[in-house]
Design goal:
CATH architecture of the domain at 135-215: Beta Barrel
Mean pLDDT: 87
Distance between the termini: 73 Å
Strand content: 25-35%
Structural class: alpha+beta
Strand order of the largest sheet: 5-4-1-2-3-7-6
CATH superfamily of the domain at 135-215: Trypsin-like serine proteases
CATH class of the domain at 135-215: Mainly Beta
Number of helices: 3
CATH topology of the domain at 135-215: Thrombin, subunit H
Largest sheet: 7 strands, antiparallel
Helix content: 10-25%
């Protein structure tokens, strides 16, 4: 009887080993793993921004650049605001205050919130070596679909106008979000789309401002008000 049970258990184990592995254990491609890793690392540092304006609500995206609540975004998202609501990746919302605005030059703004705990920050890269054809990722809040990931390439670099053109889908609500390289570093701040049909569709022509331009803006703010960046 004991030998029979051993044989039975061995047979059952053999059958179990032949059962296909569940979908959750699938092996992703190299490209998929890169996208997944970047998204999981970066998305906690992305916020949704909703500015109450006379016409309703202006929505956009922001990047946490300081763990104590300093957020980089596009200034046009905040134009004519009455109040600003900033929503973190965990769903927590805070009132935001504009502490610097560069709306007349390159469309940047810094917002300050007062979080109850330290925030995950994003890594600012270097946009001086951007090449047409390199792969990029964008994370934003298009039409209220928070922390949406899209992928594409750099389609064109316009150094004269300080614009990176990309076919990674950018839509209303994505402004202020990051354009990322495959190291998960921000190389641009998503700003606008070419929309001849008045935002009815995305035609694959989006624009971001190079991050080096944003870094100069941040450095100028730091010189003016170093207390904002001082470690406590």
């Amino acid at each position: 009887m004991k030998n029979f049970m051993k044989v039975l258990l061995a047979a059952a184990f053999s059958i179990f080993m032949l059962i296909p592995a569940p979908v959750s254990s699938k092996i992703y491609s190299v490209d998929e793993r890169i996208n997944i890793e970047i998204y999981e690392n970066v998305s906690p540092s992305i916020v949704a921004i909703d500015a109450d304006i006379n016409e309703g609500v202006s929505s956009g995206t922001g990047c946490v650049i300081d763990s104590r609540g300093l957020i980089l975004t596009s200034s046009h998202v905040l134009e004519g605001f009455k109040t600003i609501k900033v929503t973190l990746s965990d769903g927590t919302s805070y009132s935001g205050e504009i502490i610097a605005d560069n709306s007349d030059n390159n469309d940047f703004a810094l917002i300050k919130i007062k979080p109850v705990s330290s925030l995950k920050t994003i890594n600012l890269g270097n946009s001086s070596n951007i090449k047409v054809g390199q792969k990029v990722l964008a994370i934003g809040n298009p039409f209220g679909f928070n922390r949406t990931l899209t992928t594409g390439i750099v389609s064109r670099v316009d150094k004269k106008r300080n614009k990176i053109q990309t076919d990674a889908a950018i839509n209303p609500g994505s402004s202020g979000g990051p354009l990322l390289n495959l190291q998960g570093e921000v190389i641009g701040i998503n700003q606008s789309i070419y929309n001849p049909d008045n935002n009815k569709s995305n035609i694959g022509i989006g624009f971001a401002v190079p991050i080096n331009v944003a870094k100069k803006f941040i450095e100028n703010v730091k010189k003016t008000d170093p207390a904002l960046f001082a470690r406590r």
